[in-house]
Fold these 3 entries.
Entry 1:
Amino acid sequence: MHYKEMADILFPNLLHSAEYYINKYKSRQLAPNAVVTRFAPSPTGFMHIGNFFQAFISFNLAKNTNGILFLRIEDTDEKRKIDEAKAVIYEVLDKFGIKFDEYQTLDGVDIGNYGPYVQSQRLDIYKAFAKKLVEEGKAFPCFCKKTEGKADVLKQRETKFLSDDEKEYDPCRNLTFEEVKKHLDAGDSFAIRLKTKNIGTERIKFYDLIKGELEAKANAKDFVIIKSDGVPPYAFAHAIDDTLMGTTIAVRGEEYISSTPAHLELFDALGFTPIKYCHNPLICKIDNNGKKRKISKRYDPEANMLYYFEKGYPVESVLEYLLNIINSGFEKWRKDNPNLPWSEFKFGINDITAVSPIFDLVKLNDISKNIIAKMNDVELYINWLNYAKKYDFELAEKLIKDKEKFISVCKMDRVGVDKPRKDIYNYSMMKEYFDYMFTSPQKYEISNDEKSKANEFVTNYLIDFKIPTSNEDWFNSVKMLAEKLGYATDNKAYKQNPEKYKGNVAKACEFVRLAITGHKNSPQLYAIMKILGEKESKQRIMNFIDFTK
């Protein structure tokens, strides 16, 4: 067989050979144990949390070993590629602080010596290696037309399988040089397929850095390595790219485990040493039927990484939550080191969970509450304002106009208390949470049964109303009035004989709180009235009296 001649007529205009690229991309000089890894997203839509999960693992593996992390954009799927998606990928990675040692900028400049870092700009490299495989008799051109539907596929497969080894042969695998030339002269398009050496009954064992030794069915198909449009599928492109770019560990989802034997077959055919795989578990959710499923962009808004920006979660909240599900040891580390940044937590490959984690929004919110509670008033105000500038321009204008007022609002949970309230877990909820600081209440959390008692107490409270000098003075004034009007000042006595009283002091305070905020619960009421001022506070009390008549 004239393999060399066949390769030349299939790829007549290539500038460089496979050997040229092997020599061009020199081996990296690394420190012992340093990891070279990559994040290789496809710009086919929004950034999925599962993809970001891989990026975050890769980032930490490189960072914790003084290694190298590079970004490679895998944009060879023209049908699914979305122009805006690449910018979204860069935006998400930048906002979450995932920094790369090597990448291509959005305006097309390669940073690093192993580019281009975009696969659509590496097509000649893939063709050079495909040509090499054809020259060696390991690959062949396939001129078969695309199948039309499942029935067509099944019909073709009836003639492809041999009963003795279950191997799926491609009809073009043994075309002669003359037959290939005849097809090319006729202008027929072709794909390049790898000649598999396996049989369908074989099992392949391989080692995964997270899951240990694995076994999967061997590839038994002459699969495509260059499509008819000249573009490689993922398997062929990644084997070449990760080898030339010096990748030592590839982090990817466990859905690739079943196709790993085919990928290892490619490494062998190319004469490359296989890279090490780290198949991370998929993030799952429990559906309404109690069944575990992969978190889905179709059903779960939190699968989209932009969701966390739109809701206003602090970056640290999301990253710390992901560390929780990557490594169960993070939670204990955080308790032991409450004030250290998450980046001080170190973990290696052996520390990554092998079990699919269940996404828990409640857990994320709890983590976020703690992070927001630690912010000082100015920091919280700035973060709230930055969120509003992008997602609520009208709110941003109010925050800017009354800057000092809203800095004081952000300080309310921290006035005179050792343990601040932890009701806020993202910035989007702050507008509603502090709605009473923007305008007088339009509705009140009070039942019709309590309106009469509330009206009586607040009417009497208004008579001598003034904002006291401290929270203690305010509480004592409410306590004195409550006792005068028949409310229990001793909670123990109230519990023993509640029918004897109109309520307790807590209920009296609640009525005043309702008048000022409309809510039964709020940050320290004295701090709220002090910010609002005496005139506004008095007007709100009068409004409440009218409402409860």
Note: The longest strand covers residues 203-208.
Entry 2:
Amino acid sequence: MRFQIAHNLPQRLLVRCGKYVFTRKEGYAIEEYLKKYNGIERIRTNYMNGSITIDYNGGIKGQELIKILKKLDINQLEEKEPSQSQLIEGTNQDFVQTLSKMTFFRTAMRILLPKPLQLMYLLNKYRPILQKGLHSLFQRKLNLEVLDATAIGLAFARRDFGTAGSVMFLLGITDQLEEYTRVRAKTELSESLSLHIEDIWVERDGEEKEIPLEQVQMEDIVIVRVGSLIPVDGTVIRGEAMVNEASMTGEPLPVRKDEGKTVFAGTVVEEGEIRLSIRAVASDTKLSHIIEQIDHGDALKAQVQKRNENLADRIVPFNLGLALGTYFVTRNVTKAISLLMVDYSCAIKLSTPITVISSIKEASERGIIVKGGKFMERFAEADTIVFDKTGTLTKAKPEVKEIVAFEGYSEREVLKISACLEEHFPHSVARAIVQKALDEDVRHREEHSEPEYILAHGIASKLHGKRAFIGSYHFVIEDEKVPLTEEAKKIIDEHGKGRSVIYLALGRKLIGCLFIEDPLREEAQGIIEKLRKEGISNITMMTGDTEGAAKRVAEELQLDYYRAGVLPEDKSAFVEEKQNQGHSVVMIGDGINDSPALAISDVSVSLKDSSDIAREVADITLLEDDLEQLVEIRVLSRRMMERIDHNLKTIVGFNSGLMLMGLFGALSPTSIALLHNFSTLVISANSMKPFLEENENEGIVSA
């Protein structure tokens, strides 16, 4: 490669190869080629001026980089598709190039072209603006296009070609800035969620090869080893691995994947090695569909966005009428044009969606996935939150808190028999009992036979020739008719307040009870208090658990209302009842039984460990096992609404001031157009600023 060294500073090298020596995609290939050298931290290429900028550390020297660049043959590099970060850089380059071209042509036109040719050039630029304005009129719409066409047309009619040209130039810059702002906001949102995988291992023709991800083909067999991110959606054809799917399903524990099982891009192999046949790559993966949904989340417009846009459209006729009225009263065309230079629509229609997109992007960076702007608005306006209990306010990791023995048995014997019966059954209570035995060093060698698991009831088996039962009151006492004495009942009632009770019977005698408690999340109390401070006035819990367990949680957290022993349809009925009373309801749940209520609520939230159907139904998904995210999304959504309201007031106030300045002749139409467009850009830039920051002293988010 031939190049000139522009500067060679410590830890930075800039060389220039000449304008358009390489294409944009060849520039991406150069970046990819240089990344493989240790010590290189960042590479930027600019195909327009042929520059290559390299930031490096002590792992490599500037002279070594120069030698590497000299050996590089661009013709041998294949063009490369851009990553999300390269798309952002490319967007910046395109924007600068476009503005440079616009400025150059305008300057050249004014200096080099004679007046008649300048007029022809300006009229040609006015033609598409006029067409848009006439098209809107034919559709009986008075909008921004009509205002622009009228203002510039009046300037032409007055033979004020300088004003007409300046206004069109400013409009062109504004259009470019609007597009740049939108593209940049959406690209950064996608970047925050995308996979960052460059090369992957595949098996081709019986050989293992490392190739760039974008070169993978559907017939390739992808190899994923321990510690690696799975790059594609696929089906396991060989091998076995434990895959962490927390990023996709929220499940905190790794899942065993072997032949025939499906895996998704973005999940991680924690143990083992697998080979995959490809089901989907790039934009077809499940993760990419999620990103696409979020990327277009502003299509699910918040009502405030729709209202502001409708307001902007309704103001245009008054804007136009004021300009015409001013002309008829004053006969001053300059004042009329000045009024036409100002509109509220442009800034409102740009700043509001940018604010919404920015809030969704910031939420995603904090591990909160929001499916659309309207859900941010609804969360900001909500006054009622309905929690499920198990796995939401509690840890969903039951613990054995106490053991009571009867019929001459000891507590240790009751624990041993219970663990022996429960050890083969994968439900949370069984795990709690087995864990208690491990903690107490109680050995429970399997001594029973013919175990039978009764779904949602308990376990029946034989132990030392006697029939054994362990499970709920309904199963052991009611269904199996094991006698319960008044004395035993009194003891159970005393110990069982706020706890679930597991009954153990042997030989038709109740020999013990285990009292199970699902501990509250450590952060639950603080989260409830923070939500109240953020304006949530009604905090409710709905649970299928027992009255005692529900009451304990409700009292400990000081909830406004709770209901125990509810079915899925009861939860959805309660949400609907609250809505009919005029409340805006947020439903927070994680299970299949929560799905009907999640679907009917104003805005629904699923947690990290939620079931697949709960995540599918939910409008907002938390990707971290931390209820603090509820406070974050509440604060973030309210800040979004406050910023939209502040922007609207600023837009109306500033532009109204400009209109008054034009009305009294204090500013020229060109100056007004410049200030109007500049204010639009400033407000839009402000809309992209972060909403939240960490408060180190309190550990919470603040504005």
Note: Residues 293-299, 695-703 have pLDDT under 50 and may be disordered.
Entry 3:
Amino acid sequence: MKMIKSLGQYIREYKWVSIITPIFMMLEVVFETLIPKMMSSIVDYGINVPGGDMQHIYKMGAIMLALALGSLLTGIGGGVFAAKASTGFAKNVRKAMFEKIQTYSFSNIDKFSTAGLITRLTTDVTNVQNAYQMILRMCIRAPLSMIFAMVMAFLVSPEIATVYLIAVFFLAIVLAIIIRFAMKYFSNAFKKYDDLNATVQENVSAIRVVKAYVREEHEMSRMEKASDSIYQTLVKAENMVILNSPFMQITVYTCILLISWLGANMIVSETLTTGELMQLLTYCMNILMSLMMISMIFVMLSMSIASGERIVQVLDEEPDIKNPEQPCYEVKDGSITFENVEFSYQSGASEPVLKDIDLQIRSGETIGILGGTGSAKTSLVNLISRLYDVTEGRVLVGGRDVRDYDLEVLRNEVAVVLQKNTLFSGTVLENLRWGNENATEEECREACRLACADEFVSAMPEGYHTYIEQGGNNVSGGQKQRLCIARALLKKPKVLILDDSTSAVDTATDAKIRKAFREDLPGITKIIIAQRISSIESADRIIVMEEGRIDGFGTHEQLLATNEIYRDVYEAQTGRDADFDEVGGEA
């Protein structure tokens, strides 16, 4: 019921077509049910009378034609309205899911996985859409057709109609058993679609790496394995569903034989006419075909229930990070304070990712962050823009707890260039304007100048109107990083965080970017995560991270004198055997 209530609200816009469709289906069933009675009348009172009654045949034939035409038109009308209602319903569900996902924090997205969310937005919504269309049409048509045919059969001959009741009862038991087992397999199959989508997404996004390492066969093997897993599960489900067919066929032919035998005896004893027997045989097929449709409905509903539950999980998921009831809409300055901060990605984790973090950064300072892989550098800066919330303690920006700010205001004032740089399909200008949709072309050029991107953008065939392929595949890694930095600068933030965002840029260009930041962005607090000491040695102060703790915090000279980790890294990168790029190495 919870699932129906959650999804039912997305039908409201299409409630009238959802109401009209069953009415059309009802009329179609009425027309179809009356046709056998007209046919019986033709046989008994038009053909089986001495000399035949052509006038009666023409009259009943005309009525049959009108009924058939009515059935056709109402069937078409029902199909059109059902399609409109189901596609509109699916549109609303997709929109609601997409809007809900936009409110998710990083931890919410981690819970579902990107591939899992894509499956729910596509395959699962399509299953629910098909099920809703079937509910509007078949769920009305099939039961009504069976009931009307049963009523008409009892009106003609209660003795023979009893055969139908026994057949319906038998098939209902068989169907219930089949659906119970099939639903389990369908539920498992949809979970495996997530794995398949993850494989496809990973392969397509990293196709250049796959080809560079000649791993096509390995990837095809992974794809085959994921596909085969779904195949095996669906085969088991279909093997259960297909059992419905032989039971249905046995029941149909048994009913025909029993009705023919009983009907023949009743015709001989003159308690049944030939036309009535034909009418009963037609109702027999109507009833059993309705049962077949009902079995298909149950199979489709079994699939859609599993999909619907997965959709509702997305819609009911509460974002971990929300706006406060009375948010603050102004960030005073770029000062940052960490007070007794601890952080874990999962509640109840045995060991926090960040622990004992106490830190004060003055507004306008340039802060470098250095540390080994897994030292929680990124986790530290993610707390500043509230991409995650602290587990204990608090983070202050501009003198206020980040949890007091309106999320949009905070993230506009704290610009982050993440480790994984992403460009979207569109022109260079369109990508830059993600930072400020109202930025002029001159403002975009200025941001690119500061990020040392103006030179290569101007050299492109169409300059700032050059089209960027999806993911930025037609620009180098270093160019992508500089465009992402320029995009962040267009926000004109009070805090700028560069998370290893110049790793693909040569040292000469890196130095130019740092110089531009120092000279042209004096009022912005700049936090730079880097692996190269040359990228951060000119910073006002440098944080050294080790296993989620701050191991050292001071100037370049202070850390060389007092911090062993910093000194070791410095000597490794500047010593005679160091192999870091000193002349350039843009990707």
Note: Confidence is low (pLDDT under 50) at residues 578-587.
